[in-house]
Amino acid sequence: MAFESINPATDEHLASFEAWDAARIEQALAAADRARPQWHQTPLEERCALLRRTAEVLRAQEAELARLITLEMGKLYREARAEIEKCAWVCEYYADEAARFLADEVIETDATRSFVAYQPLGTVLAVMPWNFPFWQVFRFAAPALAAGNTGLLKHASNVPQCALAIERVFREAGAPEGVFTTLMIRASQVEGVIRDPRVHAVTLTGSEPAGRSVASIAASEIKKSVLELGGSDAFVVLEDADLEWTVQQGVMSRFLNAGQSCIAAKRFIIVDAIAEDFLERFRAGVEALQVGDPFDDSTSLGPMARRDLRAELHQQVQDSIAAGAVAVTGCHEIEGPGAFYAPSIIDRVQPGQRAWEEELFGPVAIVIRARDEAHALEIANGSRFGLGGSVWTGDSARGEAFARRMQCGAAFVNGLVKSDPRLPFGGVKASGYGRELSHHGLHEFLNIKTIWIR
Ligand code: NAP
Fold it and tell me: From ligand 1's centre to the CA of 117, what distance in Å?
C-alpha cells in the first residue's frame, strides 16, 4: 500500500510513495551498519560541523520546507517556519555543547585513574509522529548524530514528503550515506527493524498503543527504548492569577498547531472563585480565533491533520457531552473541504467522561472546576498522563511549591509548557519514560562506560 500525501486544508491529493519491500529495507540497514563504525570514529568536531551545515541548509530552505509541512499536515505556515528555525537551533545547540556533554568524567577511586567514557550505542531507530514533522525528528537526530550514533527514521504515514525532505537536508549538509536514513515503511514493518541485530535502540514519539508495542518488542530483544507519548496537561488557574493574560496564554497553548500538541494545555482546572469570570473571557478568546487557510496570515486556526483524526475527536466530544459535560462553544465539524474543526470548549468535565480519561488531540479545551488549590492539585495529578503542566498565580513562590508537587516531567509557573533544547523533555506515568534534549537527551543513547586503570 502506498503512502498518500494529502493536503488537510483542501483534501487535495499531493503525492504517493510506495512502501519499501524487504529487499529495500535490507539495503538501508546494511548501509547504516557500514556507516556506523566510520561515523563513530569521525572526530567529534567533524560530527558537529555536519550539524552546523545542517542548520545552514534548514535556514536556507526554510520557506520551502515550511511550505511542505503546511501542505502535508495543515499547520499555520508561520508556525511551520518557526518549526524549521527551531530545528536549526537544536542542531547548533548540540554542535556547541556536545564536546562538554561527551567529555570523560574523571572519578577518584582506588585506581590510578578511573573515569566514565561516553560512547555511542550504534544505530537508533526513531518512530515519529506527524504533528511537528521536522522538530520531533531533529530533537532526536541532532544529539544522536553528535554522539556518534547513526539514525533511522520511520515517520508517520501522512507526512512522506517531510520524511524524505529530512533525509535530503542531512545529505545536502554532507552526511555520509547511512548516517541518517528515512525508511519508507509501515507500522507493521517496524517490528522487523527493531529485531534486526544491526539496530541497537529505538525511540518513539506517538500514542500509547504504539509505545506499548514498540517498547515490548525492544524489551524482548533487550534493546534500550525511549517513549515520548501522549499528555493531558493541566493548566491550573488559582484565584490570584492575572486573568486577562492567563486567558490569552491559555488560548495560545490549547490552540497552537490546531490543538495537536502533546504539551498543549488540555485540562483547564480553575478554582471556583474565578471559574465563571475565567470561562467568560476564555470563551471570548476562543470565539475570536480565525479558522481558515493555514497559508493566510490572518488565520489563527488551521485544519486538523486528517479527517479520520477529526472524526475521532468529535466522537470523544459527543460522548463526553452525552455523559454530562456541557458544550460552551464549537463542538462540531466544519462542513466543506478539509479537516476543520470548530474551536471548542467543554465545561464541567467529570471523571468517567472520555474528555477526562483520554487525551483530546485537537482544538477542544476542557474545563474542570476545583474547590480550591488543594483540590486543583488533586485533579491535576489524578490523570493517567504526566507529560507537562502549568500553574498560573500572582505569587511565584506559591506557584513553585505547586509545581514541585505536580506529577509530570515539566511543570511551568506562569508560562506555557514548551520544549527548549537546553531543558530536558519527557514524561512520567502513561506519558512515557526517558528524556530528550539537554545533556539528558544526548546521554539516553550512549554506553556510559567505566574505565579503570592501574
Ligand atoms: P501514532 O499513531 O502512535 O503514530 C506515531 C508513529 O508511530 C507513526 O510513525 C506511526 O506510524 C507509528 N506507529 C503507530 N502504531 C505503531 C505500532 N503498533 N508499531 C510501530 N509503530 C507504530 O501517534 P500519532 O497519532 O501520529 O501522534 C499523536 C500522538 O503522539 C498523541 O498521543 C501525542 O500526544 C503524541 N505525541 C507525543 C509527544 C511527546 O513528546 N511526548 C510529541 C508529539 C506527539 P503510521 O503513521 O504509519 O501509523
Answer: 33
Contact status, residue 137 vs residue 126, Cβ threshold 8 Å: yes
Domain spans of the chain, in order of start: 2-229+431-453, 233-420
CB atoms near residue 383 (< 10 Å): 23
Cell of 318: 459527543
Digit-coded pLDDT (tens) for 244-254: 999 999 999 99
Closest by CA to 448, choosing from 43, 91, 103, 146, is 103
C-beta of 189 in contact with ligand 1 (< 6 A): no
Mean pLDDT of 15-34: 98
pLDDT at 270: 98
What gap in Å lies between CA 248 and CA 408, rounded to an integer?
A: 23
CATH hierarchy code of domain 233-420:
3.40.309.10
Query: Out of 228, 358, 436, 444, which one is annotated catalytic?
Result: 228
In what helix (H) or strand (E) does residue 114 lie, and over which residues does it extend? strand 113-120
The answer to whether 281 touches 250, Cβ cutoff 8 Å, is no
* pTM beyond 0.85: yes
3-state secondary structure (DSSP) of residue 353: coil
233-420 matches 2-229+431-453 in CATH topology:
no
pLDDT above 80 for 1: no
Which residues share a beta bridge with 223?
A: none
CA distance 125 to 29: 11
CA distance 154 to 210: 13
CA 19 to centroid of chain Cα atoms:
24
205 Cβ inside 6 Å of ligand 1: yes
CATH of domain 2-229+431-453: 3.40.605.10
Q: Ligand 1: which atom is nearest the Cα of residue 211?
A: 3
